[in-house]
């Protein structure tokens, strides 16, 4: 892992830095590149524009991480229930993606399951789907456990897996018999070398192998692969695998973050490749924003320039 990436990911965990940085207008300005606004109204408006102007569906995530009380987790749950109802009333193709720590994962597995299940059941009642984000490694086991519990009750739930973890190959094999919806990403947290590939080239190769595994003919019907990456080389490698073989049982779509690799997003739309854009919103954007900077340290230059912009 590069020093810059390490420093930025350590910064993502700093409460002191968060409290300072969020007050600076130039930081707030540079966040807007990745986030259309803090409120659900602004995010929904961006979803509508994305659908009308580019014909692509979206995924909404309300930013926030660890909580200290179950009542906070219940408030987040109510927020998502209302959001799912609003999406249905607006007739938009918008899914939601939740972080289980926001639904009370640190406060008890059963309570978190209750919250997650309410959201999945509400989405199912509208014919919609819920994604579960993957957080740092200490949450991987309980996240998979809660995905399994929800998946046993409804197919309208998908799980994010991270290609930087050595364990993901085995996790994926164990989940495949379910015919699951899996969003594959490289992984955005600071993980030690005994748990995650330290070299980017190894993460990229593992990503390719895992995605290619899901496209094989022996996976169950209903398997869905969300290709969550902005890596153009990887995208083209996977597209050529798909073009060179008869289609397997798994369906797929590309998934990218709002504001990142816009030319690649436009090209996929023009070439009629299935694409969905993840839009984040909320007031608790600092750690998420630092992870976006860490993904591309050149972004730090962009932030520096924003210091002098009016
Ligand atoms: C839909 C979606 C959902 C995600 N959910 C999760 C999750 O639940 N858990 C998790 O750990 N991670 C999640 N991530 C983040 C993911 O783990 C990676 O950190 C992130 O996608 C960057 O990796 P990459 O695959 O785009 O490849 P990289 O090799 O990092 O990037 C490829 C190219 O994309 C561009 N790029 C990538 N990131 C940025 C950026 N921030 N700013 C500007 N350009 C950039 C650059 O041109 C770069 O060269 C998600 C990503 C996506 C797209």
Can you characterise this structure?
The chain is α/β, with parallel strands linked by helices and 310 residues long. The chain has a single domain, classed as TIM Barrel (Alpha-Beta Barrel), CATH 3.20.20. It is 50% helix and 14% strand. It is built from 13 helices and eight strands. The protein has an eight-stranded parallel beta barrel with strand order 1-2-3-4-5-6-7-8, surrounded by seven helices. Helix 7 links the parallel strand 3 and strand 4. Helix 5 runs parallel beside helix 6, helix 6 crosses helix 7 and helix 9 packs parallel to helix 10. It is globular, with a radius of gyration of 19 Å. The two termini are 34 Å apart. 38% of the residues are buried. The model has no long low-confidence stretch (mean pLDDT 91). The structure holds flavin-adenine dinucleotide.
Radius of gyration: 19 Å
Describe the sheet with the most strands: 8 strands, parallel, barrel
Tally of individual helices? 13
Adjacency order of strands in the biggest sheet: 1-2-3-4-5-6-7-8
Distance between the termini: 34 Å
Mean pLDDT: 91
CATH topology grouping: TIM Barrel
Shape: globular
CATH top level? Alpha Beta
Number of domains: 1
Helix content: 40-55%
Strand content: 5-15%
Bound molecules: flavin-adenine dinucleotide
User: Structural class given helices, strands, pairing?
Assistant: alpha/beta
The CATH architecture can be given as: Alpha-Beta Barrel
Secondary-structure element pattern, one letter each: HHHHEHEHEHEHEHEHEHEHH
């Amino acid at each position: 892992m590069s020093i810059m990436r390490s420093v930025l990911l350590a910064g993502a965990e700093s409460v002191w830095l968060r409290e300072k940085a969020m007050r600076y207008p130039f930081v707030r300005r540079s966040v807007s590149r990745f986030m259309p606004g803090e409120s659900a109204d602004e995010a929904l408006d961006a979803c509508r524009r994305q659908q009308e102007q580019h014909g692509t569906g979206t995924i909404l995530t309300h930013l926030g991480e660890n909580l200290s009380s179950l009542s906070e987790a219940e408030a987040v749950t109510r927020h998502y229930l209302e959001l799912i109802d609003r999406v249905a009333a607006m007739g938009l193709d918008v899914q939601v993606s939740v972080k289980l720590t926001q639904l009370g994962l640190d406060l008890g597995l059963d309570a978190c399951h209750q919250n997650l299940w309410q959201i999945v059941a509400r989405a199912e009642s509208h014919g919609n789907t819920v994604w579960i984000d993957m957080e740092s490694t200490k949450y991987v086991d309980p996240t998979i456990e809660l995905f399994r519990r929800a998946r046993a009750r409804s197919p309208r739930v998908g799980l994010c897996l991270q290609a930087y973890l050595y364990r993901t190959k085995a996790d994926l094999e164990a989940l495949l018999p379910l015919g699951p919806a899996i969003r594959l990403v490289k992984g955005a947290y600071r993980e030690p070398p005994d748990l995650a590939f330290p070299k980017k080239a190894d993460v990229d190769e593992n990503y390719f192998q895992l995605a290619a595994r899901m496209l094989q003919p022996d996976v169950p019907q209903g398997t869905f692969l969300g290709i969550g990456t902005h890596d153009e080389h990887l995208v083209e490698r996977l597209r050529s695998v798909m073009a060179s073989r008869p289609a397997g049982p798994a369906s797929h779509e590309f998934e990218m973050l709002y504001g990142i690799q816009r030319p690649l997003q436009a090209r996929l739309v023009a070439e009629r490749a299935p694409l969905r854009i993840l839009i984040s919103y909320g007031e608790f954007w600092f750690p998420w924003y630092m992870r976006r900077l860490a993904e591309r340290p050149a972004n730090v230059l962009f932030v520096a320039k924003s210091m002098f912009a009016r």
